[in-house]
Structure formats: C-alpha cells, structure tokens
Specification:
Length: 292
C-alpha cells in the first residue's frame, strides 16, 4: 500500500546568460517548476536584465510552463528562483503492475508510440528478447533500467542534439538525456508507457561537473507516473520536475530563434532540512516515487 512521507523542500535558482545578435532574438524557456499534485511551487521570482515584455503560459495537457520573450541586441541575463515542496506519493514496487493497453487512460496513450528520439519500433525484437518473459510490473521496468545502465557508460560530450536511442545503443555511451531516450524506447517497445522528464541533477557527484539540468524517465504503472533515473547520477527524491514530453524535442530548456551565444547555465538547488516542519534531506530509497 502507498505510504505517507515527509516533505522535501528544494530552494531552486536557475541563472542563464546570453549575448543576443544585432537583429534581436525570440526565446522560449521551460525552466519554471511544474505544478503537480505532489509538487507545490511557492515564492517564485523572475529577473530579466532587459526591459522587455515576457509572457508565461501553461500547457493545458502537459502542465509544462513556458516563458517567452523577444530580446533586444546585447547581453541578456535571466534568473528564475522558487521554493518547491515535494510530498512524494510512495508505493511498494512489488504492488505496482503494468496496465493493459485497453485500460490505459486516453491521456497516456501517446506515450506508447515511437517518437523522434525514441524509436521503439526499431527496438521491438531486442526488447522482447530481453524483457518479454519478465513479470509485467515495476520489476520489469527496473530490469530495463538496469540493462541500459549495464550497456551504456556515462561519458560527457559524446552525444549531441541529434543523438537518438538507437544511436546510443550502438555507441554504448552518452549523458543523462541519452540514457533516458534508450530506456523510454525499450519500455514502449514492450507496451509500457514512458515519457521524458526534465529537472535538475540534485545530488550528482561533483566530479561530473557543476550542477546542471537533468533528464530522467517517468513510467506509467498502476494509476500514475513513477520516477526512474537511468543514468543513476542523481537522487530522484530531489528532482524538481520542470517538464514532461515524448522525448527531448518536447521539453527543451531553451528554444532560441535568432543569432545568440550562451554561457553554461548556473544551477543552485539545495534542500531545506527542518525536523520540526517535517522537512528532510533527499536520499535514495527502495520505494517507488511519484510527483504526479
């Protein structure tokens, strides 16, 4: 049975710096924390260095929040901050079964199909051979994740914006985005709905570099979406969901129209620990976690 859990409170700040070319540029960002049943966003703040009009919209289907503006030539700095409380839904993995396609909610069906970076139709034979005989539930999804981890090494600067799940399987190396695409494609190949999620890499080993955005996976089991981190580089209990989609094409952190140069993002995310308020440090746990 699901169990109640203490709250994780993350103080998040994202700083992005650009230099915009002489003709200006249009930006669309997906850096605002999503509002979900288990993720409460408060005390938001936004700083934009240029005196321009911005617009924030929420996609009615995904819940993703998109900030957009037209920037003038010259320097542009954007700083987004928020306090985010994560009161995860937790469940015993042994109780979570897969849902037959005929019983899936209509809003989940789109995550069964192949997509630009997750060519599940090209991985059906591999997926059936490796996972077709396993018990159909959380354990099978866990086996898919472990299979990906055993065959792909985390190596920075080995992939690019065109690298797909099939490319990653061939190259046997990649970053969090590549691990996520491969796991999603394999799940869909055995009729398990899976989607791409973005957040920040809370708890990642500093040897991997400064804090950064992070790609992970959500899989539909039982009656909701559960979190999986196929790259294994961060602590899922500390993931603040920014966006979800079929793959990375749906949830780009920044989409830019125009001549722009950028600096690496500066991400600051720390947990507020206060036993009196029931606020705990994120840690790895054996329970299945969901913010849906």
């Amino acid at each position: 049975m699901p169990t109640s859990a203490p709250t994780v409170r993350i103080q998040l700040e994202v700083e992005l710096q650009y230099h915009v070319g002489e003709h200006g540029a249009d930006f669309i960002w997906n850096i605002h924390a999503a509002h979900t049943p288990c993720q409460t966003v408060s005390a938001e703040r936004l700083f934009i260095s240029q005196a321009v009009v911005s617009r924030l919209d929420t996609d009615p289907f995904s819940g993703n929040r998109y900030l957009r503006l037209h920037a003038a030539p010259g320097p542009l700095t954007l700083v987004y901050g928020a306090t985010v409380d994560l009161a995860h839904h937790r469940a015993d993995p042994a109780t979570l079964g897969e849902v037959a396609v005929q019983h899936l909610p209509p809003e989940v069906l789109g995550y069964l199909y192949p997509s630009r970076y997750c060519q599940s139709d090209r991985l059906i034979h591999t997926a059936i051979a490796e996972f077709g005989g396993l018990w159909q539930g959380h354990g099978r999804v866990q086996a898919i994740m472990q299979w990906v981890q055993s065959r792909v090494s985390f190596t920075s600067n080995t992939s690019n914006s065109s690298t797909s799940a099939v490319d990653t399987l061939i190259a046997r190396q990649g970053v969090c985005r590549d691990f996520a695409h491969l796991m999603i494609a394999l799940c869909r190949a055995v009729n398990i709905p899976a989607r791409f999620a973005t957040g920040t890499d809370y708890g990642a080993d500093p040897v991997l570099g400064p804090p950064d955005f992070h790609a992970y996976v959500e899989v539909y089991l039982g009656d909701r979406w559960y979190i999986f981190d196929p790259s294994g580089t961060a602590i899922p209990m500390g993931f603040v969901r920014l966006g979800t989609g079929r793959d990375a094409a749906d949830v780009a952190i920044a989409t830019i129209f125009g001549a722009v140069t950028s600096q690496p993002p500066v991400i600051r995310a720390h947990a507020v620990v206060d036993a009196a308020q029931g606020l705990v440090e994120p840690q790895r746990c054996a329970q299945a976690l969901s913010t849906s």
